[in-house]
Every structure is written in structure tokens, then in C-alpha cells.
Amino acid sequence: MKKIALVAGIIMLLATMVFAAAIKKGDLASLKGTWEGRAYTTQADGSMKLEILNDTEPLQGKATITNIDRLRQSDAPSWTGDRYEGQADNGVITNKGTIMFIGQGGNVFEITSLAKDKSGKLTLGGWLFGKGARIDFSLKKK
């Protein structure tokens, strides 16, 4: 009886886990377009737009973060102005199943997840590192 309960418990645990699937070449077409949402740290957030301009490797992308006053004050004091912009034309799928972009001046951004929310809308998550600050993001396709 204990073995049955143990096996049932393990099965229930596995059934509740969500496994993030790696991004594959077949997913690139669904990435093309405009994504909007939040850019955030543990202490602040701003608005972000990510534009993926093509659907083949290397991907071309442009990230824009606005409303950065709180981000600048808490985690990105080297940012100036009222927005942050970064772009790259070298996005490739990594061996981890993410998409990595390396921009000018050591700026980097990575798409780490692609999924659908409860309503079926595509979402993506990732992070960027620009001018000495790491910012995470969560976006939905427009």
C-alpha cells in the first residue's frame, strides 16, 4: 500500500510540473513581430517593446524600454534620458534552446521562454544587460 501511495504521489508531482520547451527553428516564424510588456528588477519596472524584424537566423531585434525613472534610480543609475534602446542583428538559437542577441557596447539580450497564456496569447520572457544593469522582461505578442 505504501508503494502505491508513493508511486501515486510521484505521478501527481510530475503532472503538476511545467516543463519549459526549448525554442526551435520552427518557432522563429511566431517570434516575428512586436511584443510589449514589462521590464523589471526586484525593485522597479518599466514598459518594454521588443521588435523581432525577421523569422530566420540570424534574427534582427530591437528592444526599447520606456518609463525608466524607477529602474534608473534603483538598478540602472548609468542609464540616461527617459528611455533605453538596444538592437542587434545576430540573434541565434543557443544550445540551451534560448535566443541570444549581442549588441553594441557589450549590451546583450536573451529570449529564454516562449509559451501561450491561458487565453492562448503568445508570451515570451527573458533578460537584457545594458550599460551595466540586468533587467528581466515578460512580454505578450501584439
Summarize this structure briefly.
With about 140 residues, the chain is of the alpha+beta class. Helices cover about 20% and strands about 45% of the residues.
**Going across the major beta sheet, what is the strand order?**
1-2-3-4-5-6-7-8
Helix and strand content put the structural class at alpha+beta
The tally of strands reads: 8
Query: Any guess at the CATH architecture?
Result: Beta Barrel
Please tell me what the overall shape is.
globular
What is the fold-level CATH name, i.e. the topology?
A: Lipocalin
Poorly predicted runs: 12-19
Integer count of domains: 1
- Helix content range of the residues, please? 10-25%
Q: Termini separation (Å)? A: 52 Å
Alpha plus pi helix count: 3
Largest sheet: 8 strands, antiparallel, barrel
Average pLDDT metric: 85
Percentage beta strand: over 45%
CATH class division: Mainly Beta
Taking Cα atoms only, what radius of gyration do you get, to the nearest Å?
Answer: 18 Å
What is the H/E string? Answer: HHEEEHEEEEE
